[in-house]
């Protein structure tokens, strides 16, 4: 695995609201630490960093713009020269101009982390793959929450996470560990 010198790190929805207890039990309690490890590497090597922020249409959402849950967590606030992409649907490419900015910058490889694995991460990674980007999803740099499946069967956060990664790997993206990305860096 080769990590390109201009590979972009895409950090999805690391906002204050994602820590709200009402979202339920999550997996990967160390995900934020893994994201910070990757962010440190990207900053040290001057690779592009893209922060994605969700602005919900729904007042019930933890990402509703008129409350503090919409704000990025302090440890994930963009630094100078880092991009901020604001989205209103799970897919970071939808109506944001992200694809055009990446193409203009000559970036073809994307390393995707953040939340929720089964929602914004999966949606963004699917589009990245469909658009021809070399997308990597960092399995221990993402997390999700417990959720019932379509038939009403409760699924643990680990099951939801694993199924989402299974949906992506080999078709839309390459699923990797943070250790492999750091070793390639």
UniProtKB/TrEMBL annotation:
<protein>
    <submittedName>
        <fullName>Cysteine hydrolase family protein</fullName>
        <ecNumber>3.-.-.-</ecNumber>
    </submittedName>
</protein>
<dbReference type="InterPro" id="IPR036380">
    <property type="entry name" value="Isochorismatase-like_sf"/>
</dbReference>
<feature type="domain" description="Isochorismatase-like">
    <location>
        <begin position="7"/>
        <end position="150"/>
    </location>
</feature>
<dbReference type="GO" id="GO:0016787">
    <property type="term" value="F:hydrolase activity"/>
</dbReference>
<dbReference type="Pfam" id="PF00857">
    <property type="entry name" value="Isochorismatase"/>
</dbReference>
<dbReference type="InterPro" id="IPR050272">
    <property type="entry name" value="Isochorismatase-like_hydrls"/>
</dbReference>
<keyword id="KW-0378">Hydrolase</keyword>
<dbReference type="InterPro" id="IPR000868">
    <property type="entry name" value="Isochorismatase-like_dom"/>
</dbReference>
């Amino acid at each position: 695995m080769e990590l390109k010198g201009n590979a972009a790190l895409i950090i999805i929805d690391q906002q204050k609201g994602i820590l709200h207890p009402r979202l339920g039990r999550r997996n990967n309690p160390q995900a934020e630490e893994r994201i910070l490890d990757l962010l440190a590497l990207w900053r040290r090597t001057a690779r592009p960093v893209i922060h994605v922020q969700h602005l919900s249409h729904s007042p019930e959402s933890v990402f509703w713009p008129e409350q503090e849950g919409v704000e990025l967590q302090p440890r994930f606030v963009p630094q100078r020269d880092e991009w901020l992409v604001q989205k209103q649907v799970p897919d970071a490419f939808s109506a944001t101009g992200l694809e055009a900015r990446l193409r203009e910058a000559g970036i073809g490889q994307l390393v995707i982390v953040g939340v929720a694995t089964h929602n914004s991460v999966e949606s963004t990674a699917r589009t990245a793959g469909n658009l021809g980007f070399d997308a990597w999803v960092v399995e221990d740099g993402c997390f999700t929450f417990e959720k019932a499946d379509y038939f009403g069967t409760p699924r643990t956060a680990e099951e939801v996470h694993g199924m989402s990664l299974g949906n992506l790997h080999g078709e839309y993206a390459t699923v990797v560990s943070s250790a492999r990305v750091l070793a390639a860096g």
